[in-house]
Design a protein that fits this description.
The complex is a heterodimer of chains A (about 425) and B (about 270). Chain A is mostly helical and about 425 residues long. Helices cover about 75% and strands about 0% of the residues of chain A. The radius of gyration of chain B is 21 Å and the shape is globular. Classes of the chains: A mainly alpha (about 425), B alpha/beta (about 270).
């Protein structure tokens, strides 16, 4: 019992325009991604290591996912950890360097034979990520009240740098080969570190704050969250180590099982938080999130099975798995959380000073909830059409699925514009 | 049984549940939550020394520690001849023994609760009015546990007596408290008795930003003589700048992880 009389907190949040800039860029990237899927649907079969797929993949992972995380962390770190963001200027500089890197990298992947080197975009992106890490760490140093979210975010930053470093080495290797082990094995390290170390650590850490906040849940223990953190991070350190050796089989199984167990613990933890919620009705933002957590569970199980057979020898399985993780789990979660966060930020920026003095809109009135529902079901329908048609390689149905995605992304863009302009 | 000669680290190793007791009794012991500091500090210090370092009553500390590991524990009455015979199974703090009854200020909060109001403000008001040599007695139908630590921050010790279905809690200013810090506390605090009207709102079942909307909408009714008491499920960090804008100020009291009482007033009120 450490009941305190708490002093009045200063103004923590960074300027709205910084966060908005990252979010707008991310929304644009998401729409571009969906249209690139339609334009290149024929490329989605066979091995995943193809220039077009790599390009489109990075539009999503760098342009949408990581871009949103950057913006969200500038907003959330100050509020969750009660510190001021170290520098708004660094956040601004980072945006332009990072965005330039993203555009050039996806361009170079797409037009694989162009004269542009791989190294330049990789350096730009890694620089942007390093600036981000410096900015957040410099803010975190002043934190007085540490919490589980802070712990997860710190490890996410570490893995972000590892991902950037691995990405840089891979890009150099594409210019002039020098990596002694298999390029694809190193790519695997890059991908695992990105999805589990960077994205999932952020997602998990932030979820311990946002999900209880939006569902009004409390009275649960966070023991599982601590164990999940330990297991996943040991697993990741292990994977990063063994991937530097030619034979990974045995240790891959051990560390893979650690990560798997960590994810299972996390999923149980999130389930208990949902169970203890006071708000029983799920609004559209939470519907997206719940579906995302189900897809996260599915990908965790798939990953578990991958420990025991040569999954890459089954045609299109890796691609299908990629869509379940990137689209089903991560994109659904981000879209859902954006339906919660963006209206709030805009409302706070524009209207919070006017409440009680003049009429202000309700959050729900700031976007078309019906349209958001349509987007939700279009995305689910698209995903459920895509999975079997990829596996049995029916290109026509793959195109239909991508069209569903593209239409849904337009709905998303429309709603987001509506929020920003309301 | 824990004795005054035992080392703190041994106690914590053997009975981890006593950590909570230490922390509750004195903020000095908060350091023990940190495992490294615990190793560095606690291995050389016994209970008696710790009590004097933290300025807490040794007997009370021993009693609470033993109670934590054994709910059946009874204090030996060998040193306490003056204690009433029928109460030997209860520890009564020194400050309450032979305390003149007319100096005990009584506040029965049961009626306040019955009328559906939160007695928190009334209690704080009484606390303010309490003179140096007086003791506050709160009578309630349940044990007001969160109040213990809120008042401990203000330098109060407590003693709780259960009589049938009612709880009698005595609060006394701890004599060991440094006067300077108390003065500081008092200067910062707006005087509660100056407010004639109290508006109470509960925003705990609302999701963001509805709590903020509700508070800001109610703000128009808050004038120099009004106090707005908000029951919140977390500390409203993003609300503070908005209150500032409108010339209000707020103070939050943490009752537990999911319950904060936020007092909002016009700025610059004396």
């Amino acid at each position: 019992m450490m009941n305190n009389q708490i002093s009045i907190a200063g103004i923590y949040s960074p300027p709205f325009r910084i966060v908005a800039k990252y979010f707008v860029a991310a929304i644009l990237a998401f729409i571009i991604f969906n249209f690139m899927l339609v334009l290149n649907y024929k490329n989605f079969n066979g091995h995943h290591f193809q220039p077009k797929i790599l390009s489109i993949n990075h539009i999503l992972t760098l342009g949408f996912i990581t871009m949103v995380i950057f913006g969200a962390m500038f907003q959330l770190v100050p509020v969750v950890l009660e510190v001021k963001l170290f520098s708004t200027l660094l956040a601004e500089i980072q945006f332009w360097i990072y965005t330039a890197g993203c555009v050039l990298l996806t361009y170079k992947f797409y037009f694989f034979t162009s004269k542009l080197s791989f190294e330049l975009p990789a350096i730009l992106i890694a620089t942007g990520m390093t600036i981000f890490t410096v900015n957040i760490v410099a803010s975190m140093i002043k934190v007085k009240k540490w919490n589980i979210t802070g712990t997860y975010l710190s490890s996410a930053l570490f893995w972000l740098l590892i991902t950037a470093l691995a990405g840089y080495l891979l890009s150099k290797n594409l210019d002039t080969p020098f990596i002694k082990i298999n390029h694809l094995q190193y790519l695997k390290l890059h991908a695992i570190t990105a999805f589990i170390g960077w994205v999932s650590m952020v997602v998990m850490g932030v979820s311990f704050k946002l999900i209880p906040m939006f569902t009004l849940s409390h009275g649960y223990k966070i023991t599982l969250a601590k164990w999940a953190f330990i297991l996943i991070n040991i697993g990741l350190l292990g994977i990063n180590w063994i991937m530097h050796y030619p034979d990974t089989k045995f240790w891959n199984l051990i560390f893979g099982l650690l990560i798997f167990t960590g994810f299972v613990l996390y999923i149980i933890q999130i389930f208990t938080i949902f169970q203890k919620r006071i708000r029983k009705k799920l609004d559209i933002g939470l519907k997206f999130s719940v579906f995302a957590f189900i897809m996260m569970s599915v990908s965790t199980l798939l990953n578990f099975s991958f420990l025991f057979f040569e999954y890459e020898s089954i045609k299109n399985l890796t691609l299908t798995y990629g869509f379940i993780v990137l689209f089903g789990y991560i994109s659904f979660l981000i879209v859902g959380q954006m339906y919660k966060i963006v209206p709030f930020l805009v409302w706070y920026h524009k209207y919070s000073s006017k409440v009680g003095l003049e009429k202000t809109p309700m959050l729900k009135d700031m976007f078309n909830e019906k349209l958001a529902e349509v987007q939700f079901y279009l995305m689910i329908a698209g995903l459920f059409i895509l999975i079997p048609s990829l596996l049995i390689d029916l290109q026509f149905l793959v195109l239909i699925a991508f069209l569903f995605f593209a239409i849904s992304s337009i709905a998303f863009g429309f709603n987001m514009v509506k929020i920003f302009r309301s | 049984m824990i004795t005054k000669e035992m080392k703190i680290s041994d106690i914590l190793n053997k009975y981890p549940e006593t950590l909570e007791v230490f922390v509750r009794i004195s903020p000095h012991f908060k350091k023990l939550e940190n495992k490294l500091l615990r190793k560095a500090l606690a291995s050389r210090v016994n209970v008696e020394q710790a009590a004097s370092i933290a300025n807490v009553d040794l007997k009370q500390l021993l009693y609470e520690l033993n109670k934590a590991i054994d709910p059946e524990f009874q204090m030996h009455s060998d040193e306490k001849d003056s204690v009433n015979e029928q109460n030997t199974n209860e520890y009564i703090p020194d400050w309450l023994i032979n305390f003149p009854e007319e100096k005990i200020i009584e506040l029965d909060v049961r009626q306040i609760l019955q009328s559906g109001k939160d007695p928190f403000l009334d209690i704080m008001k009484k606390v303010k009015e309490l003179k140096e040599n007086e003791i506050l007695l709160i009578i309630n139908s349940f044990e007001p546990i969160p109040l213990y630590s809120v008042l401990a921050k203000k330098g109060f010790e407590h003693y709780t007596k259960k009589e049938g279905n009612i709880f009698k809690v005595f609060f006394s200013r701890s004599t060991n408290l440094q006067k300077i810090s108390e003065d500081k506390l008092q200067k910062k605090e707006a005087k509660l008795e100056d407010y004639e009207k109290v508006i109470e709102i509960d925003v705990r079942d609302l999701t963001p930003p509805e709590p903020m909307i509700k508070v800001l909408e109610t703000l128009s009714q808050v004038d120099e003589k009004t106090l707005l008491l908000v029951h919140h499920h977390r500390e409203p960090l993003m609300l503070y700048p908005k209150l500032e804008e409108r010339g209000n100020e707020a103070k939050s009291y943490k009752i537990n992880e999911n319950y904060f009482k936020v007092l909002i007033t016009k700025k610059g009120n004396r």
